Amino acid sequence: MTSVEKLFGIQVRVYGDAETKAHESDMKHDRALWLSNHRTRIDWMLLWSVAWRTHTLHQLRIVLKAPLRKIPIFGWAMQHFIFIFLHRHWADDQVNLRKLLPFLLSKEPEASYLLFPEGTDLSESNLEISAAFAEKNGLPRRQYSLYPRTTGWTFMFPLLQSQLTAVYDVTMFYVDYAANERPSEASLLTGRVPRMIHFYIERKDISALRNKNESELAVWVEKRFERKESLLKNFYESNGKLPDGSEPLFEESQAPAATALVAFWLVLIGAATIIGLIGNLISILAAVVLIAGYTISTTYGSGVDGFLIRNL
């Protein structure tokens, strides 16, 4: 149980197919590329619940849209954790990825990676764009997922595959606070968070994908999202029906570790608050300078991660 679950009271259940269940113990040692559907803007944070259970939270590198790196405090922290930010301009993104991924492979060989192939969340405007794409290409309209953008996946996988042991196909099913109410960052502040999230994982051994070329990899991920749409449709239109053959994963209690994690953050926040209250003018000025420096660097410059990439 992560601090997100503990603090917000979100119930989490993790399931897998029979093959994944058979490799449940291996998942704590996997170096995997995770592929997930992307219903909300906070999916990446909620997926920490799975990373916590697989003991990979500390080494999970998440692929996100570049504007998130500018968020005060959190965005700066993500830069330091070397999350992978995409600007949605492929000419630049592929240059950065070609530099950054080999660096991560050499410096963090145990890392796993989280990618959202849809590229954006399931907002009404994005659904309309997806519907227009489907109509233009003679494809069926989707309601619970978007057609995946395959370029990032087909580019990243060949660069990472030498150190991967598996690919995780993760499908997130939400039980909303109120019907069809997609959670957002504001939901975390108002308490209108999902009542429950079901994660369904299909683990694919790396050997099944290693010899595929770019077009075959693109077809593979398109087929996975075609399946996701079907699974999501069944869940939301059939009273929470999970995929056939779903087996529970990671059923051992997470409570002691979660309590320790929450206590750690409460102590840290409390200590920081006390220090801030009794701090002298110099410390306040230093904090202002630090915040201003990060803001200017991220807004008008390349930020910490950009500096790293430029100097690789």
TrEMBL record:
> Which keywords does the record carry?
Acyltransferase, Membrane, Transferase, Transmembrane, Transmembrane helix
List, for all copies, the residue spans of the domain called Phospholipid/glycerol acyltransferase. 32-154
Q: Name one Pfam family in it.
A: Acyltransf_C
Q: Which SMART domains match?
A: PlsC (SM00563)
The answer to whether UniProt assigns keyword Glycoprotein to this entry is no
Transmembrane residues, as ranges? 262-292
Task: Spell out the molecular function terms from Gene Ontology.
Answer: acyltransferase activity
Q: Give the record's family classification.
A: Belongs to the 1-acyl-sn-glycerol-3-phosphate acyltransferase family.
Q: What is this protein called?
A: Phospholipid/glycerol acyltransferase domain-containing protein
Species of provenance: Phytophthora oleae
